[in-house]
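1st attempt posting a full record on here, be nice pls
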Amino acid sequence: MKGRGTPKPPARSSRPRDIGFALASCAVLGAYNNVINRHPWHHRRYVALNACATGATVAAAAASGLTAADMGFGRAEWSPGWLGIGAAALVGAGWVVVAAVPATRPVLNDKRITSLDGRAVAYQAVVRIPVGTVLWEEAAFRGVLQAALRRILPETAAIAATSAVFGVWHIRPTLQALRVNGLANDRRQATARVAAGVAATAVGGALLSWLRARSGSLTAPVLLHLATNSGGQVAAWAAASLGRAPDE
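the predicted structure (as tokens):
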């Protein structure tokens, strides 16, 4: 069953205004991370800028006629339900296992994380990721975009389109991660790896969108996304620390 606060599926709209808002949302979100992410000032003010973008996006959606309930954060939709809590707990437990088992620790080797000290990792896991990444992406994709598309498309098609745009959103971040870890020297291999990363992200986005639809709450995908990103960051740093311990 869906969450208690799940709104009834709305009648699909054919109004040009609703179609235009959905298409504009797809275009803006598809371009945002791949354009603005190129600039150093965005990295320096990441949390503040993305928090402002969250507010602006939700305000635009409200102006288009979407309600808080449509976007999954109305008063009745705050509870993530056992499905959201269970999914987040399962991911968290998985990170603990991966970090604890020597054979799986190399999976967590990411120089963007392992080069940080404990204070920087804490800031990333407690502030930068929850506010600058998870809140922004969930509000934009599983909140606004999915609701806007659901207004004009069947739910399955809305989830597929939201997930595809979420994959496109990660093109530049995936390429940056490959470069930092020395995996983008060959253009052909880099292209293949970016495509694989984008496809994997789209699949992850589909899971988050399904959880949003199934639970009726934006809180559920927020918890899962937070457990995946912040949990992964802490696990990578802990695995690197465990790997260095014998040499110290």
